[in-house]
Queue: 2 jobs
Job 1
Amino acid sequence: MAAAAAGRPWVLRAASIAFVLGLWEWGGTVPVSIAFPKCSETLVAFGGMIADGTFAGAYAETAGPLIVGVALTGVGGVLAGLVMGLSPRTEWLGLPVFIVLQASPSAAIVPLITYIYGIGFAAKVFAVVLLSAPVIVLNSYRGIANTPRSLLEMSDAFLASRWKRIWKIVIPAGSGLIFAGLRLGLAQGFTGAVLAELLITPTGVGDLITFYRSVADYPRMFASILSIIVVASVSVTLLQRLELRLFRPEMRPA
Amino acid sequence: MTNRTSPTSEPTMSDGVRDPGGPAVRVVDLAKVFAGGVRALDGVTFDIPRGELTSIIGPSGCGKTTTLKIIAGLVDATSGLVEVDGTPVTEPGPDRAFVFQDFALMPWATVLRNAAFGLELRGVPRKEREETAREYVVKVGLAGFEDAYPHQLSGGMRQRVGLARALAVDAEILLMDEPFASVDEQIRRKFQEDLLRLLSEENKTVIFVTHSIEEAVYVSDQIVIMTRAPSQVSKVVRPGVDRSGGSDHIRRSPAYLDWVERIWAELQGYLET
Amino acid sequence: MELRGYRVPMAFSLLVWFALWEVIGRLELVSLIPPFTDVLLAFREVVPTADFVEAATITLQAFVIGMALSFVLGFGVGFAMGRNRAVGSLMGMWVNIFESSPLTAIVPALMALLGFGLPTMIATVFLFSVWVIALDTQVGVERVSSSLVEMARSFGASKRALYFQILLRAALPELLAGIRLGLIRGMKGVVIGQLLIAVVGVGYLFELYSRSFLMPQFWALLIVLFTFAFLASEAVAYFERKVSFYASSR
């Protein structure tokens, strides 16, 4: 039965969603905890928060630092990755820093941010940059540094100058990985934005979560959490679709 | 293919003067030690006559490709000398074009752009270079595939793009590194014939690395047989198979079969067991 | 990079950064950045304290238990997804959503459900790390060449032998990548969880040090944490490199 449905992904997906939501509903009915609302209650709260403009206001606040932060890191990070991929000295100096940052719980630095940037917009931008930079830089670096040898040799054999080789071979060959880095950076940026809103000052979605928890309105709190997961997933998925369209896998170097 | 020059068995030092009657390429006492101490080449010497097709054949891992890449200027020799038209080779030049074993096509570019890429790098205006490339794409038998991408082509067709790219830059010397290694047997035979036909129109000097004895005998005017690494030249032979009777005739001719046997006998001694 | 013909290992560039840090600290350019040597001295102050030992213990405890849960469930779900297409498409959607979503937002809900103690931290570690482990396991199992599986079958391998002798080993490169990424995410999870809970573990210490403006102590703790995370991921990466040696000819 499941095998037959595998041919129709929409059926399977809908069934999967229904199953998980059903499980949630059942968990809320038991109830697992007084702080665990039923699925239906949460969805009603979700609808209400869309209708009364709560979400619109909150996401208008959250979007600012997120977009500015990811845009800054997108430009700066890709440039840093390019330079590191092309220049061995910069690679030597910079790469270990980003490898360490990538592997470490750099969120621990967030409590310090307020000392430099206060509790406003800039602090949140910094949190977004802090979390999204390593993956963007490292992906760009890898895209540039791992240009297939045979293409490099080919450009040599056909007398490419250094700049033509970078422009016509190295960057096109790396562009898929660079874009994937931007997508992963956006996902990290969401984490950074939410963390800043929960930890530094309650604004936007972080404020909704904190506020409804403090007044024990659990359906609305869960609806807020659900909303940020949905928004993040949808935007990352859209970026992934765009990526597949722009850099089709078969047009990437192996 | 014409046999205008006879091979010189003993290399003589170059006098540095360009001599259109002399060999197109001279390889003198070439040695290559890779980082890590692997000795690939140990005193390789041979001449490539102008306007002919010379194959380099030998057991796998004997440094055939390394030799070709040193001639191309893609790899530096540890010692020894490669001269093209009397000038020592230190880097790739416009007088040589390379056909790669793994095709080395840009997956994001169309057949036409790939074929025109050598000209693009030389700064030839778009219209002009696409015209030239289009001509060669048709010549290698890919008419109608100009706007296709490499992933839409079979291995044999991809290599035809690689060949078109190399021909489009109009270099005197064509360096082909096991061009048919990733192409299946039937396509390979067709491709060999097309190659010979094309070359007879283009009048190029071709150096052709292969591990197939049949292929070497079939396509070559001259065959350089190399020993196991650290390699030297075992023998230089000129099969001179009569090609007048068409491919089926050649492959059945006693001279062809005889040469295949003789080269096999020569190579057998160097095979690893 | 090469210096007078000697290759200088890349990790040495960190020394350059530490030197720069020292200079910035000595010049008192930024109040938040004390000289690096002061940070090193603060190690001796921070590490032996009862606060630190307690924080480290509870953090490690949460980390180890959470990771153990992640490995068991992540490998299990990943194997099922890789071996069975229906399970793969049924679970794949959820795994992909949670793998790339800001799970930080869930922590407040966990606090409401599970309180401010160990269970919340364990749940955070688990939720941060399990998805990537499942995903990499699935990829690894799917990439095992079907001829290898058919070979095992045709030589009469039992199901058990198929899993342990063939699938587990052939998928090892991806499994190790999953373990490494899972460990990294788990570390991030435990720290983020504790920062948000704010009353336990290293998260509490970070809050305390930054609120009391004990900068050398803050940075010392951060270096301890970063070093631990880096060494843990490098240890797995070491095995990954060893495995990739034979995996290259799969």
Job 2
Amino acid sequence: MAISQGHHAEKESVFKSVIKVKQKERQGMPAFLKTAGLALLFPILLLALWEGVTRFGLVAGHLLPAPSEIVGTIWAMGVDGSLWGHMGITLYRLLWGFFWGTIVAVVIGSLVAMSRNAETMFDPLIQAFRAIPSLAWVPLFILWLGIGEPSKVTLIALGVFFPVYLNVVGGIHSVDRKLIEVGKAYGLNQFQLVRRIILPASLPSFLTGLRSGLGLGWMFVVAAELLGASQGLGYLLVLGQNTLSPNVILASIVLFAFLGKVTDYALKKLQTRALHWQDNMKN
Amino acid sequence: MSIQVDKVSRTFQGTLAVDEISFEAKQGEIVGLLGTSGCGKSTILRAISGLDTEYDGTVCIHGKETRGTSRELGVIFQEPRLMPWLTVIDNVCFGLTGTKEENREKAREILRVVGLEDFEQHYPKQLSGGMAQRTAIARALVTAPSTLLLDEPFSALDAFTKLQLQDMVLELWESYKPTMVIVTHDIDEALYLCDRIVILKGQPGELHDNLEITQPKPRKKSDTKLAELKEYILESLDISRTPKQRKEA
């Protein structure tokens, strides 16, 4: 009797778990929506509150415009076409600075990481330069390169350089000696070791460097455009301040947030795709 | 290919680690370097492989003195040391120099031998310890090196996988009879695989004994002659008693 009861209980528990699995399958899609809903809940509430307090005159509307007004400003700029010019020039400056900063950081970083002599020669000087707040260079760049594009791109490239450089050097230094030995056991020469082991092994660190470099790039693009530009999202900040239009300032901030997020997302996608082989918590 | 190790010593930061070790591995012979930990077995193997060149003495491969790595030597390490960004098949192809298609064909063949043909597109993170080590063995074998150097290749594996891979190595050896030098601290493993056991002892490590084992392979683990040899090795390594007892005696 006891045996048959136990058997019955077992059957029942199997039955229950089957039902649970089926329920889970049915809830698959709503579960995804639930996460999205949960993530959006707080921002939407906040926006509604903001809209509410400005609409009902609880804060001064000429200092803090409603979200709808900011969207309206962006929309108007989109319609008259000026939006694309501002966004385009800012993106151009950022990407060009990011490109040069990265190239120089990879070349010098690899050299310093691979050769002890190069490290002794260059690294102390680079570290000393790193200690200088990069914005301190601005007056000099303007003096040397003028107020046009070169000084802006140089400033952004300088900002991108340091995080990428540090991560390239750190990444190469932390390549597992045991993997390099495998390459040596197969008689690979120095160049082959770099291409087949050191580069792929230091890729995770390099990509981390790229992402923090991009973050700093955005910071420096604002600095560069604040200091003297006739177009760009940073120029909109200055324009908004001078014409007492906080809606333009906030529109520029929203656009910075949007573009920053999009470019970082692209790099993050690249990172996930290139590093799918990594054995870590996320994978 | 034969290997002659002649009076090889190695000093690390002023401390002598191995002292004038000499032995020979004839062509097609499996030689075991056996000893307790810290006696310099791996140091000797690294000298033979050419990964370490700072030793005194000479290593001759096929009668020619060499110092440095050579494509004639295949090395299997204690850990699999697979490239985590390469799939199993690309890891196996790592040391090959031919065209991609040729290499893949060779790699597939060897993956069938080690029983990993269904895992060629897997990444190292998806493999168990035994599978990863089998991949490493395949990577070393695919270039068909005339000499294989194995540095405690099975010490990190569970007992069952270990037995399985020991048999696999023996089968591979049967197929083209490469010369093999295998570092181990496992007496049973040495007795099961080797034609000659070089026993190292002490710190700095010195050559203690050089035993030839004539029993034909494959051997039975229960062979009485092997059991006697095991007893002899245990006694000569002086590890059947604790150090304290030794002092008292």
